[in-house]
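Re: beginner question about structure tokens

> Can someone show what the tokenized structure looks like for a real chain? I only ever see the sequence side.

Sure, here's an example I had lying around. Input first:
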Amino acid sequence: MEKQLLAVEGLTVEYWARRGRVRAVDSVSFTLDRAETLGVVGESGSGKSTLGLSLIRLIPPPGRIIGGHLWLEGTDLLKLREEEMRNVRGRKIAFVFQDPMTSLNPVKKIGEHFVELIRTHEPKTGREEALRRAEKLLNDVGIQSERINDYPHQLSGGMRQRVMIALSIALNPSIVIADEPTTALDVIVQAKILDLLKNVQNVYAMALILITHDLSIALERCNKILVMYAGQMVEYASVENIYNKPQHPYTRGLLKSIPNIELAEQKLEAIPGSPPDLLNPPRGCRFWPRCPSSIGKCREREPQPVETEPGHFVRCFLHEVAGNESN
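And the corresponding structure tokens:
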């Protein structure tokens, strides 16, 4: 069995508005291996959620995927018909949304969500069998089976998120995409949800894409990290390289903003300025107005991703300069 599960090449997503065109995801590329955990990090509006939704082709109108390839086990998902994609969603790639209260139907009992999902993909499965599977899945995520008859509003925020995780693994997918799965939860519940995701990943042998604005979570929980800024991938590498050898000024800025309890007199540093308006992004590198290391060409041309060492990609002219100076 091939190790590589998913290969994303040059994925580009645009939204059309009255004021103009927004390129929310701009030529993003990465790979995902079996049982691997990839963290997608960046500020709000960087394109993280749009990237996740594009992997299952659920971009809401007026957005659309305008370029690239999504290779899942050798099949380009962008070339599938919609009815074929329905068989991929849930069965091959599952999605855990940010807010479970808006994802769960408020007038349906928890068990009915499982019955609908399972019988939609497996019409020959009887209702009672689907309910038995639902009870086991709920037990797997730490929810007592009798809560299967509850409505979503009768569960706490953490329990609703556990239900969403159970729904995501109901069809044993190869990949689960978790979009900010700990939003609006207290820190204790956050840790439990993240531990639960890791546990079900190990039990069900699936790959996980964890979308988060918190770089510290990605550093702790992931194998690789993809750093996004203004719709673009600015750095992509192993966790070890991101932490020990960050090469993009934006990544270094994010790392400096993380509190370290082992440093008594640590001074946290904020990244100055704000992300650009994607309706009118700056010419050249999109980060240069906030970058402490920008050089002349940053304001004139857009840098392209460069592989500085095997598996470590960065979108920054500084590494081209360093390479030229060393030659």
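Each token stands for a local structural state, so reading them left to right follows the chain. The chain has one domain: 4-92+173-326.
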